[in-house]
Design goal:
The chain is built from six helices and 19 strands. The longest helix is centred in the N-terminal third of the chain and has 21 residues. The protein is globular. It starts with a helix and ends with a strand.
């Protein structure tokens, strides 16, 4: 082959490789990745344990079945949303024990540094594909999906939490809450800083305690929230979202309590900036009060 011909082919290969990196490929963990064929997911998940499936319905997500499997021996749990036999899997969750951080360290070796870090959560982006990981509670949880599916499942998760019976605790995925907060941020606003990126971080000056409804009078409970403190020292309207609540009836008064608070804003290089924070509101059976 003439040298000029070889040079052209090499240049073309480099261009195609660069385009592939720019377009992005889904990230894979333990053989699972979003967009994988239904049959391959079933085969791979079957090596973990027996699949148990049930109906699944989220508007805009092309899947009708939610399948899960786990292994008592390894502690691994896998969940995936499936559709027709010849379809692909848009959403996969993999959980495994990770009290030492070894499994999480393996992700950074395989995928490189994450694009976003918030508390114990990390996010990697490859074009339209997303991989979220969280190490809370001594377990590594990984969500593998695409941006459109992530947004729809986040909306569904929050809506389902609001619809639960008042006697049931609520827990929302940190990744889902983060997506909602980001979508509701003011147009053109930069991503909020995290507490470890500012000095000093936001501090509560005062709050007006909002009592729970009468049917929860005398009932103790708490709500953990995530929200953005703006540069003026207020909770940004629309940014206050629930991470956990012992009862859904506590959620509205907790949100109202945070909305009434004034803060010393967090600062970055001496300038007041927007900061993403988490806070707990406690209800001691008499009145609500913001907790740490």
């Amino acid at each position: 082959m003439p040298p000029s011909r070889r040079g052209t082919l090499v240049a073309l290969a480099l261009v195609l490789t660069a385009c592939g990196r720019e377009a992005g490929r889904p990230l894979s963990h333990r053989g699972f990745e979003p967009g994988m064929p239904d049959a391959r997911f079933r085969e791979t998940a079957g090596r973990v344990g027996t699949l148990q499936c049930g109906p699944f319905q989220v508007a805009g997500v092309g899947a009708t079945t939610l399948c899960a499997t786990s292994s008592a021996a390894t502690g691994i749990r896998v969940v995936g949303t499936l559709g027709a036999p010849d379809s692909t899997v848009p959403y996969v969750v993999v959980q495994e024990p990770d009290s030492t951080g070894v499994a999480f360290a393996g992700l950074t070796r395989a995928w490189g540094a994450p694009d976003t870090l918030v508390a114990t959560g990390r996010r990697w982006r490859r074009g339209r594909w997303i991989a979220d990981a969280d190490t809370a509670g001594g377990r590594l949880t990984i969500w593998l999906t695409d941006t459109a599916t992530q947004a729809r499942i986040a909306e569904h998760t929050l809506a389902a939490a609001r619809a639960r019976l008042d006697t049931m605790p609520v827990r929302n995925e940190v990744a889902a809450v983060l997506d909602t907060i980001r979508r509701m941020s003011p147009a053109g606003a930069a991503l909020p800083a995290t507490p470890d990126e500012v000095s000093p971080p936001p501090r509560v000056i005062a709050c007006r305690q909002v009592d729970p409804p009468a049917d929860l009078a005398g009932v103790a409970g708490s709500v953990r929230l995530m929200y953005v403190v703006d540069s003026a020292g207020r909770a940004e309207p629309g940014s206050v979202h629930i991470l956990e609540a012992t009862r859904p009836g506590f959620m509205a008064p907790a949100v109202a309590t945070i909305g009434s608070c004034s803060f010393r804003p967090g600062r970055q290089r001496g300038r007041a900036v927007r900061v993403l924070v988490q806070q707990r509101v406690d209800f001691r059976g008499e009145a609500g009060s913001p907790g740490g």
